[in-house]
Amino acid sequence: MNLSIDVTKNDGVANVMLGGEVDAFTAPQLKETLLPLTKEQDVVEVNLQDVNYMDSTGLGVFISALKATKEHDSTLRLIHMQDRVYRLFKITGLTEIMNIDSTVQGGM
Amino acid sequence: MDFQSCVNIQKEWDIVGARQLGRDISRKIGFGTVDQARIATAISELARNIYLYAGTGKVCFETLEDMNKKGIRIVAMDEGPGIQDISQVMEDGFTTSGGLGAGLPGVKRLMDEFDIISHVGEGTEIKVVKWLR
Amino acid sequence: MSTLKLDLENYKELLQEYITTKDEQALYQAEQFSKHSMQQNISPEEIINVHIQSLQEIYPDMPEYIQTSMNFLLETMISYGLAYQEYQTLREKQLELKSEISVAANMQKTLLSTVKPDIDELDVGALSVPAKQMNGDYHHFVHDNKGGLGIAVADVIGKGVPAALCMSMIKYSMDSFSEMQTDPSVILGSLNRVVERNVDASMFITMFYGLYNNNNHTFTYASAGHEPGFYYHKDKDEFEEIDAPGLVLGVSPEITYTQYEKQVEKGDMIVLLTDGVTECRTGDRFIEQEEVLHVIKQYSHLPAQGIVDQVYKHFERLQDFHLRDDFTLIILRRNV
């Protein structure tokens, strides 16, 4: 149960590459990375192609990141989400208010 | 207060000097090996706190002689940043020095009496006493 | 100190016995001695001191370097002794916390307790089991004055104490709503504003709210991002997902919830749950929805409460009797 976080910054855009699982153990670490980025960058793009599991604590991190972008007038974009993770955003209604790339990756 | 002897703490090496002087005094008072070791450990903690958080300060010793008991009083004084939340540093499990020090709760356990006065921006004074049994 | 003095004699004898016999018996007694010392809160340096004193008495001509080396050992043990005492204090504190939490858990139970309705028209089964001491799931039944039964199922993000505190807040707000206003969309809308104002940015709550009308057997519902429930058609022996899109509570203040309605036929079932049921993990595998439905079907001949209990037993066993998330399952079945 690990999460790798790789951040590359380029001209006001931060690309955050995640790999592994976002759960109660790894969420604080993700939050610590994500929230400052919403303040210092214009666009924060999170690539979730290698995230195979996320629980509600993980969702909470993205919700607070979304709220932070509104405060700092920046943009949050989630791309390449796997099926299982996408389902979670769909059920909770977040797909309606978040910028999520619709080209969903096949699960597994 | 009139102290018999003090050790100035400025560098890590001074912690050893304070231990040595404290041990000599305790031995003269008549403390056994275990208590000597405990007193020395308490001095280490007090002196290290000064060295780490205040930079400089001093540790002073006083022989106590009551009608029916003898003991040692150690006073650690500095003019460092002071401690904001004393209750917190006196709590077990709260160590700022990476968990390796016994911390102030440890000092309190090693000694019989413990008193601390601290003002933020002015400094800290810790007085401890060990009685001979 | 007096007990220690007594033990010195004891220790000296044991040591002497062992030195002459090298007998296991003496070692066993040494083990007893050490356990006894721990009970008396005797720290390691004191034991070493007893050892030194015993040696001195047994060997009055003990070489000085041994004496010195033993003192050296004693000195190094002081910090271990302190760490041990600290550990003891922390352990006591932990017990204290544990008992405080169990008091809080009981308070929560009382606060959130809800009475399973007993109505002729509807067979109701409900079960909610926390993964830890405090439950972050919540379900509640309310009767209104027009022959309706309101059912709320909610799940707070995370588990444990923070989730439970948040749940208590929801319960209080719901109690304060007027009995006249039982429209699911209105209730979710009002709760959303309460949660949005009062909880941390990363905290959110999902809730499904349904209203069963006993007069005409319609089920009106709305969902705030809650795990979809299922509708069981008795005639077709099929399940259908109860799809009710809506945003979770506490994210955006300006949100309205759409309300849906369904006609319930005799023998049909409404299955409401939290993601603790569908997100059960067994080893590396997740339990899929189909499996939940399969188990429900398997026991569908039982009364609603019986089905709920059997589903719980099934998943409890799958997870080696160690729940990872709070588990809540409610089944409503139209009787007549």
From TrEMBL, chain A:
<comment type="similarity">
    <text>Belongs to the anti-sigma-factor antagonist family.</text>
</comment>
<dbReference type="InterPro" id="IPR002645">
    <property type="entry name" value="STAS_dom"/>
</dbReference>
<dbReference type="Pfam" id="PF01740">
    <property type="entry name" value="STAS"/>
</dbReference>
<dbReference type="InterPro" id="IPR036513">
    <property type="entry name" value="STAS_dom_sf"/>
</dbReference>
<feature type="domain" description="STAS">
    <location>
        <begin position="3"/>
        <end position="108"/>
    </location>
</feature>
<comment type="function">
    <text>Positive regulator of sigma-B activity. Non-phosphorylated RsbV binds to RsbW, preventing its association with sigma-B. When phosphorylated, releases RsbW, which is then free to complex with and inactivate sigma-B.</text>
</comment>
<dbReference type="InterPro" id="IPR003658">
    <property type="entry name" value="Anti-sigma_ant"/>
</dbReference>
<protein>
    <recommendedName>
        <fullName>Anti-sigma factor antagonist</fullName>
    </recommendedName>
</protein>
<keyword id="KW-0597">Phosphoprotein</keyword>
Automatic annotation (TrEMBL), chain B:
<dbReference type="Pfam" id="PF02518">
    <property type="entry name" value="HATPase_c"/>
</dbReference>
<dbReference type="InterPro" id="IPR036890">
    <property type="entry name" value="HATPase_C_sf"/>
</dbReference>
<dbReference type="InterPro" id="IPR003594">
    <property type="entry name" value="HATPase_dom"/>
</dbReference>
<protein>
    <submittedName>
        <fullName>Anti-sigma regulatory factor</fullName>
    </submittedName>
</protein>
<feature type="domain" description="Histidine kinase/HSP90-like ATPase">
    <location>
        <begin position="34"/>
        <end position="133"/>
    </location>
</feature>
TrEMBL record, chain C:
<dbReference type="InterPro" id="IPR036457">
    <property type="entry name" value="PPM-type-like_dom_sf"/>
</dbReference>
<dbReference type="Pfam" id="PF08673">
    <property type="entry name" value="RsbU_N"/>
</dbReference>
<dbReference type="Pfam" id="PF07228">
    <property type="entry name" value="SpoIIE"/>
</dbReference>
<dbReference type="InterPro" id="IPR017944">
    <property type="entry name" value="KaiA/RbsU_helical_domain_sf"/>
</dbReference>
<protein>
    <submittedName>
        <fullName>PP2C family protein-serine/threonine phosphatase</fullName>
    </submittedName>
</protein>
<feature type="domain" description="PPM-type phosphatase">
    <location>
        <begin position="123"/>
        <end position="334"/>
    </location>
</feature>
<dbReference type="InterPro" id="IPR001932">
    <property type="entry name" value="PPM-type_phosphatase-like_dom"/>
</dbReference>
<dbReference type="InterPro" id="IPR052016">
    <property type="entry name" value="Bact_Sigma-Reg"/>
</dbReference>
<keyword id="KW-0378">Hydrolase</keyword>
<dbReference type="InterPro" id="IPR014787">
    <property type="entry name" value="PSer_Pase_RsbU_N"/>
</dbReference>
